[in-house]
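Researcher: Before we compare anything, I want clean individual predictions. No alignment, no superposition, just each chain on its own. First chain goes here; please echo the sequence and then give the structure tokens.
Model: Echoing the first chain and its structure:
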Amino acid sequence: MRIAELTPFYRSTVGFDRMLDLLGQDSRPAEPEDNFPPYDIERIGDDRYRITMALAGFAPDELSVIAEPNLLRAEGQKSDDEGDRNFLHRGIARRGFRRQFDLADFVKVASASYENGLLSIELERELPEAMKPKRIEITTGAARPRAESERRPERRLESVGAS
């Protein structure tokens, strides 16, 4: 298991791997509320990622996941159904949250699931066919097509002196 401690900029972006290798500075200041809810971002394949958020105490109907172009937003709002409970200590977070993740081009939300207090959001990068690398066939010299400028005009031989 590898764990890399990254700046908050790194933690809120998905699919920008090459760009983040080149950057060493955080582009935005950290906010105190940026640490709730806690979450992990995991690469699960060449073009697949998983964001897992710890949301103990939330019901599935209190959560929403919204995908926009280049942006993923997860939100939660607790309902006030405490009744007449008398707490001596209240350490379980019950506040609402709104967490945004910047997504690289062509990164799409594949699915979202909620189990045992963990919200898992699967992401996948899908490059359009026109942008995928293409293997170019290499031909030998005899089969090489000539460019227009390389082609010689055909000359017809006419018989001289034939009348």
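Researcher: Okay. Second chain, same rules.
Model: Second chain and its structure:
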Amino acid sequence: MARSKLVVLARSLTLAASVGAPCLAHAADLLPPPPPPPMAPPPVDVGGGWYLRGDVGVSALRLNKFEGTDRAGFIGPEGGYQREQTEIGDQAFAGAGVGYQFNAWLRGDVTAEYRTSASLRFGESYANCFSGSCSGLTPPFPRGYDFYNGHISSIVAMANGYVDLGTWYGVTPFIGAGVGSAFHRTSTMTDFGAGTALGGIGVIRGRDTTSLAWALHAGLAMNVTPNLKLEVGYRYLNMGTAKTGTLQCFETSICPDTTYKFKDIEAHDVKVGFRYMLGGFVAAPLPPIMPEYQPAPGPLVRKY
């Protein structure tokens, strides 16, 4: 009797398992795993590409041409007028500007900088043969020397364009060019004479001059933070022409109406600067989560 009950119970469990297993499998099919959370998009720049910049540097200056108006003509051919020397010192400079990054390759900015005072010295010599006073004398005539000492400072405003040449290991080489204006100020220059011009002929008044300027750039930019870049660069800068005021002679009866020009003032600059991108970076909004499409369940099939 007991054995027959056990047999009936075993058959009942087997039947229940055969009926319930397909239902459990189908129930599992109706509960798919939840979709993975969406990936956060990369940050986007909301500053519009605008940036601020600041630079400091040192400069080696060079004078290519030097002219004195009416000087040789006043002295006369027998005076043997000639220029003895032209020297200019070095400068330091500091500047700031605002620019725009158009894309990964092209950017431009407008800058202004102040260039510190540099020493300026030039000389000339001649025989004291004013108005033919050496006629009847045998050369060589006694010569006089005028050596003028003063200073020159400048303000330079430029519009620049740059091409970034790609980025490797966080370093971006670039080249560029610029054009603008240089505002020069020459100081009063005192003549320290020598030879027959001992004591000097006079002083040259200072003068402000505006001239065309142009530049060529090359350098490296490095990322400090996502918004801040460090620049190290070289610049060739041609600052055009600076002029002096009129020569004021101690002896007005022999004073020519002379001014001097310093042409093609060249600067070889080494500079360090920073560029700061405005606006910063923020994350873009997440896209809406769309439920995955699930096909309708098939008919329930029971197998006994």
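Researcher: What stands out in the second chain?
Model: The helical segments are 2-29, 71-75. Additionally, The longest helix spans residues 2-29.
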